[in-house]
């Protein structure tokens, strides 16, 4: 249910300082959070320039600076290679050393100084050379081993000090290393097909066996990819010019397995850091698939790439790259970068980034899983994303549980209050003209704005009798491209209840916020206005359903109101950038709730939790999940008074245990429910006790006793809370209570559950910091303390109202008898008097009344009480002839 949302994007062009030279390789310096890249060598300039790209965040802008670390001539040592090429670039942050592996065979290290000047003491040395030339190279994740493949079809393993550890020759004999036997898990062949001869077919033998035919579009390159723990390395290479094979070697250079034959497999290769799958590409006649292998070389599933309309992928140069925590697979095509995620065994296309050129390389940050750098000829882009659930308002009565999920050009929308549809399915699926970038709901869930690559679509989402109708397109607008060579890149969107759409985009002039109104009467968008966004990286969500503010956060943690195209700075702020952010206004007191990447949850500048995994803000609660697999409710009040409950789910209703890894999707205070998503992708809806009791309290205060009673029944909440929460109000509105509950059986259930204990002080103690009590409630409770019974007070009130109606129907008489018998002590005499009166008026009602009173009380006790009533002779006879209780 989570989407990828951009929180940082910038671009640097080599044309500003280096005359448009192409970027040949990139890598991260995680210690300084900077990118290193190389320019050259090329046919015009044989030098290699090693550059460091720095990002300076200021109050009004984000500036990109380029520092040249070193440059040197790099002529090709091989006469067959006209121009050398950088095969691998890796930076060792602990020693300020950068290692370059060149196709000609040289291994070069550049050691930087620790001084302020980047040119002081830079040391360049060729550590070794491989005469045959190098086709591919990659450092292990622990930075202790370098795996190199040579043009002589050998694999060389070197230590960090560049000492040779072992080498192996890749030969055709390697293909015999694995004896592949597929048992056909999940295949059609293994499913029951009846008693015919087809069912007798051996399911381990497919109808067509691949021979490993090379794709006509194969570039002939060799690829190397390590497993996340560094224990194994995979190498994809063409064997004998007839078949491409993936070999898996252990850390010691021992061949572990070879892949099964797959027709038209490409050179792209990326081993998922989690270790279970290796990804590659298969080019078929009608489509291009991303295919997966296990370590033993067997196929393990696939999914098809989605080309743009009217465009084929047969000639695209495709590369694959997993991010560091195995959640996102990046696929680079000729003109775009696609980011794919998987949930519930379905692959979602979460983002498409148009690059206007062939991305030569994409490198993920080793410590920030959703940040990457990508080089496109003479341009370097840096982008960062977060996983975020796009949900609608959580403020009643607009809390429909609306959630939108992006999947390429399809938007999947589900209102969970209407239907709990499990992913990857959805209640409504909307087709968009281009890939969806971001989605935003209006504060009252009336509209939904969809930002896609070419413009904005505005949908109206209506309800009928509490059920959501299919969203209806009411307006669309396209982006005006003022600089065709540098088109706008849409990043985020926000929409207000007054039909104003605000888009954050990146363009030739930097980040911009476009604002555009919508005329509902004509169905057309008005002219757009724009403002420079500076260091603003995204919009913040507002809890209030009536707010017209549009709040954005910058990289320094400051909050801006950009609704009127004027930058208004809020006094509320954070100390640093918090990617997940939401604002709530408590009677003029604005509180900003923010979550950092490392799980620190803040209210303004106050640290609340250090182990938060997800959060939601409703008008009454801040709801969080923690790494201890607990769900916590924090009552919203002044920042200084926010009370985080302890890890005590046994005694505190504000804390509850949840399944390991569960994260919040949406909350519906009207239904008193929460929706979670488990790590595998399945959904679970729960009704937390803190949320249910808080909801029942609000229903009681709103005099909605019917729904309050219904929730008490379905959620097993003690019904004494209906009286104990507002005693004076209950007694004053006893007639309304009986009228709303209506059903005599339900009224009997309420009366029979009464006891003198005040459940609001014991079982359901209000944990709010301020629990101001009504003076009338205090007076009623004081009377109870002084001697009058709470149970008797309620029963007398019920009797008073029912007897005043002068009705003799079965239900009313049943409740009158129950109110007498449920007193403490039971008023048997009054109950029997009712029976005696009925015997004089209606024998049938009297018979029913006797059965009911015998059901409520012990028959022998009733007999003794009846003997004492001189005027109930017939009643005495009736009771005397009753059967024992166990037979009634």
TrEMBL record:
Keyword annotations of the record: Cytoplasm, tRNA processing
Coiled coil: none
Pfam family, one: A-sol_ELP1
Entry-linked PANTHER family: ELONGATOR COMPLEX PROTEIN 1
Domain ELP1 alpha-solenoid: 689-867
Record's subcellular location: Cytoplasm
Presence of the UniProt keyword Ion transport in the record: no
Keyword hit for Methyltransferase: no
Superkingdom: Eukaryota
Protein name: Elongator complex protein 1
One MF annotation (Gene Ontology) recorded for this entry: tRNA binding
Chain ranges of the ELP1 N-terminal second beta-propeller domain: 405-665
Organismal lineage: Eukaryota, Fungi, Dikarya, Ascomycota, Pezizomycotina
